[in-house]
Amino acid sequence: MATFAVSGALVAFGLGVWRGPSGIGLGAELVQGFAQLLFIAALGFPVLAERTPGIRHRDAALLSRNLIYAFAGSYTVFLLIVALHRAVRPESTPLAVLIYLTVNALILAVLIAVARARLDGDGDSRIPRTVHILALAYFWCFFLLLDCVRIGRSRLADPYFMFALALLVAALVFRAARLWSSRRGMAGKVG
Fold first, then answer.
1. Contact at 8 Å (CB) between 140 and 43?
2. pTM of the model as a whole
3. In this predicted model, what pLDDT tens digit does every residue of 120-176 receive, in sequence order?
4. Most buried pick, 48, 112, 113, 120, via CB within 10 A?
């Protein structure tokens, strides 16, 4: 999974050398799109793994954690490329960009810490689950807004962003259906 993050960094670096600062910006957009696809996979995989009969629960949890780590690695590369892109520009970096980078790095660190704790068995209580869901919700909303802005900005409908938006909504629907069915099943056992 680290190979994905390293290859994304190399592609962005190559575009930066080839095209200059605008190539670094293009590389950042490509890595961000790849990180978004990994996020969608990390969000939707647990639901699909539960429905697959050949996957044991422990293996599914390990694969889910690895997908979160792959997303975190790719998103970290994206944040580093954005920081590099702002550093090579002659004008000073606005405070909003620095806050954006810092907040995203902190939320990403929380997501990684909670994912590690949940696999080790320490994070099965209500607080780590809630923090995990809030971190996933933050990134889901971030990617949703980013796709909507890019779709609205383009004069032509870009199929990638439309597809990514549809996948984001589908992953959320799968998660909500899983939550609804698990709570419904628990209510049936109690009553």
1. yes
2. 0.78
3. 666 567 778 788 888 888 998 888 888 777 777 665 556 777 788 888 888 888 777
4. 112
Q: What are the structure tokens assigned to 56, written together?
A: 């044991």
Please name which of 64, 70, 40 lies closest in space to residue 52, comparing C-alpha atoms: 64
Please report where in the chains the tokens 């099965």 appear, as a residue: 124
Q: At what angle do helices 57-88 and 95-120 cross, to 10 degrees?
A: 160
CA atoms of 14 and 10, how far apart (whole Å): 6
Contact between residue 52 and residue 180 where contact means Cβ atoms under 8 Å apart:
no
Contacts of 119 (CB under 8 A, 6+ apart): 61, 62, 65
Express each pLDDT in 73-118 by its tens digit.
889 988 988 888 788 777 887 888 888 899 999 999 998 888 877 7
Are 70 and 112 spatial neighbours (Cβ–Cβ below 8 Å)? no
pLDDT confidence band for 52 (50 / 70 / 90): confident
- Which amino acid is it at 10? L
Give the residue with greater pLDDT, 56 vs 78. Answer: 78
In 3-state terms, what secondary structure has residue 90?
A: coil
Radius of gyration of the chain (CA): 18
**What is the chain's length?**
191
Task: Count structural domains, the chain.
Answer: 1
